[in-house]
Amino acid sequence: MDKREIIRQLEIGNISLGKALELLNSKYINHNNLALKRKKLKSERNLKEVKSKLDRLVGLEKIKDLVNELEAFVKVQRKREEADLIAKPLVMHMVFKGNPGTGKTTVARIFGELFKELGLLSKGHLKEVERADLVGEYIGHTAKNTREAINEALGGILFIDEAYSLARGGARDFGKESIDALVKGMEDNRDDLVVILAGYPREMEIFLQSNPGLNSRFPIKVEFEDYSLDKLVEIAKLMLEEREYKLSKAAQAKLRKILAEKRRKAGPEKGNARTVRNLIERAIRVQATRLITQDDLNRQELMIIQPEDLEGAV
């Protein structure tokens, strides 16, 4: 019986008030259980969609393994709570160590979405800042800036790029004031905020060693390795595929040569995904200037990036 029928049966005297309340309560519980099941199924679907974004990224195998570990950890701790067992606190503050263009910001954004679907964060957005956004020019200004950044990040992730720069100015620098305000903000908002400190590997290591109290508050350390040349070419192909372009065989060889030369001259930090993105976007514009004067272009010609397009993009 539905709700109306239960009330009708009560009114005509076919069932008692107690029986009517029992039936109505049963309907309410079943409805709530069904709603919870639907919500859980939707969350699981969303979780799969978020993880698929990470799976589509080239490389990052260790980070993908870490995501599976974090997901399992969160779910098992919840089950332990339900079973009245001791559950470890879910502290997800992290340190990302890696050169520019290794995927740190992209992964941080995905982590925000992931933690939202796992119920750790209410919004899952990413607030990205650096030293200039936090450190002020006079006493009290820095703490205010840092608090504002934390407030804007609440419900999501506060991503501090080149975090080691907060400790570079010496004893009189206001960077320490920002660190102190950050630690307080993390403590006050531990139930709905994740902080990620990011930067070059060596500088981040020195920064954390010189701040042992800060180091202990970031239990998850993530290393972002430089991409191999094969991975960089694969990234370039994916970027072009998303835009409905592709490299000719000669252009693939040319791209590999350009990236190898950049890495040889300037080190790994000048030969990662960011470099590839800039190169591809410029090559697409160069290709356009090459084709604009030609008539009767076919679909294939509009899609193909040639070696001269890459050469003009350098």
Itemize the secondary structure elements and their pairings:
Elements: H1 3-11, H2 17-55, H3 61-82, E1 94-98, H4 104-117, E2 126-129, H5 131-134, H6 141-153, E3 157-161, H7 175-188, E4 194-199, H8 201-209, H9 212-215, E5 220-224, H10 229-242, E6 246-247, H11 249-266, H12 273-291, H13 299-303, E7 304-305, H14 307-313
Parallel strand pairs: 1-4, 1-5, 2-3, 3-4, 6-7
Helix pairs in contact: 1-2, 2-4, 6-7, 10-11, 10-12, 11-14, 12-14
CATH architecture of the largest domain: 3-Layer(aba) Sandwich
Structural class: alpha/beta
Number of helices: 14
SSE ordering: HHHEHEHHEHEHHEHEHHHEH
For the termini, the CA-CA separation is: 74 Å
Mean pLDDT reading: 85
Question: Which percent range fits the helix content?
Answer: 55-70%
Strand order of the largest sheet: 2-3-4-1-5
Principal-axis shape = extended
Describe the structure.
The chain is of the alpha/beta class. The protein has three domains: 3-40; 57-224, Rossmann fold (3-Layer(aba) Sandwich); 229-313, Helicase, Ruva Protein, domain 3, CATH 1.10.8.60. The protein is built from 14 helices and seven strands. The protein has helices at 3-11, 17-55, 61-82, 104-117, 131-134, 141-153, 175-188, 201-209, 212-215, 229-242, 249-266, 273-291, 299-303, 307-313; strands spanning 94-98, 126-129, 157-161, 194-199, 220-224, 246-247, 304-305. It has a five-stranded parallel sheet with strand order 2-3-4-1-5, with helices on both faces. It has a two-stranded parallel sheet with strand order 6-7. Strand 3, helix 7 and strand 4 form a beta-alpha-beta unit. Mean pLDDT is 85; it is low at 28-39.
